[in-house]
Amino acid sequence: MSSQKMLDRIRHDKRIWAHRVLTKHDQNPFFRVMRSVNAPIVDVEGQQRIMLGSNNYMGLADHPLVVEGARTALDKYGATVTGSRLLNGTIDLHMELEAELADWHGTEAAIVFTTGYQANLGAISALVGVGDTVVVDSGAHASIYDACRLSRANIRAFRHNQVDKLEEKLSRSEGAILVVVDGLYSMHGDLPPLVEIAALCEKYDAALMVDEAHSVAVMGPQLTGVAEMFGIADDVDVRMGCFSKGLGSSGGFVAGSTDIVDAMRCHARTFMFTTAGVPAALGAAQAAIRLARSSEGQERSRRVLGNARYLHDGLAAAGVDVGTESNTPLPDGTEMISAIVPVNIRDDLKAMNIWKEVYDQGIFVSYATFPAVAQGAAMLRVCLQADHTTEQLDRTIDVISKVIAGHGLLRQAEPVSVS
Ligand code: PMP
């Protein structure tokens, strides 16, 4: 490398140093090589393991109709569209997909991005700029923070899920105001107090954006996500979602008014200056949306949320800490257990050792540490799928609770209220 300064910086970077040490180490939870990815049982490094670390919540990523949708689009349009949406990259499949997304969400319009990350970057930076304010939950996804920086608006973060803190920030905001929250927080699987947030947006003339990456296709009466589940979908100005999780494909979108969507078509740099998503991803997404909107979608949603409740209650009954401090009850007062169940361990090294013991017993979960979660909040992120069997879940409960017990981390088992 010709820049000695850059080379020195890389060699002294703590994160790169830790990565190099860790990837040589047997306990390493990152970059494990998958030989199959989507089913409830996958091949990781030559061994069959129960996959509880995938965002394939609805089990659509390898669903025959979704694979067929991908294949049909691949055959028809080829491997890629080799161009930006603005120029030669818009195909009729984009137009169909955008019309179907708008119809599903009951909005005037929708716009498809190549990834969910780019959807967030493009959406936020197209809507606010210098002199405006973007108010963000402190637990919001990294792409939302990157988007805020790209927008050059003033950034105000409020403490996770605390509406009084949100109001404090709103009362001191200037210019056009955009409030951005996740519909479902991707690490702890907790829900925001969306009804109160929407009311504050109304009070302070702020637009509201909800990132439904982990909830679209999984939650809400029509499975469009948490805003719909809380009955306030019409109060959300920017409804962002991903194809890459519940919908089993790849890509991102925003559904909203014609004004909002046109702002993105004309100002979102991550829409204009990148190659449109590959046709296979669009074809898969279209098939997955149709499935999500069918009775099979409803049935799969029931199964994944039932599986989540079963695993959560089983682990809690065994004394494993699966708590989220900030989960918001539904309007009927019940607590929703999402498809993401956190196993809180807190200490990094212990969490890594626990991860490895669980892995060695044939179970793949995700290990999460700072900056994915707060400092000192290391955890295992356990994700359910519609196709997990009770037998697989029983084995998971048994393995995780025994490993946690072996580290002296079991709490006194509490009776779990079933709602
Ligand atoms: N928002 C949230 C809340 C996410 O968790 C993610 C990805 N994990 C994204 C946006 C980005 O989506 P994609 O992976 O489709 O780029």
From TrEMBL:
Keywords: Ligase, Transferase
Keyword Transferase set for record: yes
UniProt cofactor(s): pyridoxal 5'-phosphate
Catalytic activity: 6-carboxyhexanoyl-[ACP] + L-alanine + H(+) = (8S)-8-amino-7-oxononanoate + holo-[ACP] + CO2
Protein name listed in UniProt: 8-amino-7-oxononanoate synthase
EC number: 2.3.1.47
Source organism (scientific name): Rhodococcoides trifolii
Domain (Aminotransferase class I/classII large): residue spans on this chain: 50-400
MF GO annotations: 8-amino-7-oxononanoate synthase activity; ligase activity; pyridoxal phosphate binding
